[in-house]
Amino acid sequence: MNQTITPITRFDGFPRLSLDEFREQFPDAGVGQRRHPQPARCIDSTSGDERVIEGDDVRLLLITGNVSIDEALLVSTAREGWTHIAVDGDLHLEGRTTSDAYDCGMKRVYFVSGDLHAGSVDLTSIPRNTVAGRIVAQCAWLSADDDCAMRTAPELRVHARFLFAWFYSIDDLTIGPDAVIFILGNGNYCADLRLPNPSFQSHEDIHVLAEPFVYIVQREGSDAPGWVTGAIEAALARGGSIFRDGFDIACYPYHRAAQAQAEADEQRAAYLLHKKTAAIAPGFYESWLGMGGALFQAGAYRQALAAYRTAASLFPADQTGLVNLAFNYASLCALYLEQFDQAIELASMSVAHNREAESENDAFGYAYRCRAEAYLLAGRMEQAFADLEEAIRLDRHDSATQWLMGLVHYQRGDGEQARLFHARASRYQTCFSAFYDVETGTAFLYHAPTELDWDSVSLDTVSLPVGDQAR
Prior knowledge:
The protein is α/β, with parallel strands linked by helices. The chain is 35% helix and 15% strand. Strands 1, 5, 7, 9, 10, 12, 14, 15 and 16 form a 9-stranded parallel β-sheet that branches. A 4-stranded mixed β-sheet has the order 2-4-6-8. The protein has a 3-stranded parallel β-sheet with strand order 3-11-13, with no helix packed on it. The longest helix is centred in the last third of the chain and has 15 residues, at 340-354. The radius of gyration is 28 Å and the shape is elongated. 43% of the residues are buried.
């Protein structure tokens, strides 16, 4: 049954309501009122920046029926005798997008008794329960004023294709199960959303969203919001995709299941699920990185090396502030296969990727540690020493780097320095207690090289674990 939607082109003739009259006519509206208790698991949360409209600031114009209103009209019309509109029915907010606009039309909407339809919705400009039905949109946004604490989202029902949240807890939102969530904020909170939705936290977005829709991340651990709002809205408005080439959101259930299997140390199952993910989304960096990780943990370094090389090629080349981990892990694979020249080459590619970064951080040090060990085992002592000095400068807490520096001093005949660095390495990680008269590299930390037959399994037989099939 087609719903009749009436376009509103002028605001003459509609009844006016005081706030008391509105409450009498809509006693269950509860605009701006909290209905649920503050979520117990919300970390460092505040609702201090939440918008509330009340008192003398509200003089309402009541529109009845399912209507469409151009946002520009709502913003620009002179409001004689009214400040906001209330719609008893569905509201289709048309025209320009809202999240980039300083004076957006949603700020003139006090209440909608039905559903709100819009291309893009800035949820931070909407008080709790402003929309009694659903908010149906291409994209919805939550953006805090700063990153000092997690804000609390208003109580609303959001059915958006994409939800972007920056330093907002989303516990109070009722989110449609198909919404894809991108969230950056408190790490512990974001990692434990426990929602059925596809969700990507922190800087995972660079492997999911195409480059026009994400900013360059300046450094590892950056809390800056990374989404190019206007470009995302414009692409969705014209029916385009915002995903990277080779990424398909249909891979997500397998991706999540693979991560769970890896955490449970079920490496074969993790590998097959990551491989299924890559079959659906061959351009997804994380699936190839996960395949490499599962093979590496089982000692299949030759096979892991191939997966890591593919992953490394998929990492966005312009994201030089972030580490391309696949290069580092590929270097270790080559190292444990005693292919030292290849190990040096791969670690050098990791170093080169971060060379143009705006600022250094400790994560950059690992590439030097990988290359240093390859230099050391290839008999290039001075180059190994120089790389270890650089690795320690960048990250003086890495135990493997400390242990390797001790090994260099031991091989140089400086027993005092060797014991000093060995003590630093093994103080908190007992796996580095082996001394240099026994071990001459870090291969003792991992399995001996092997070959696995996991690729003989048909992907047609790989299915989601029972707990993930309903998601």
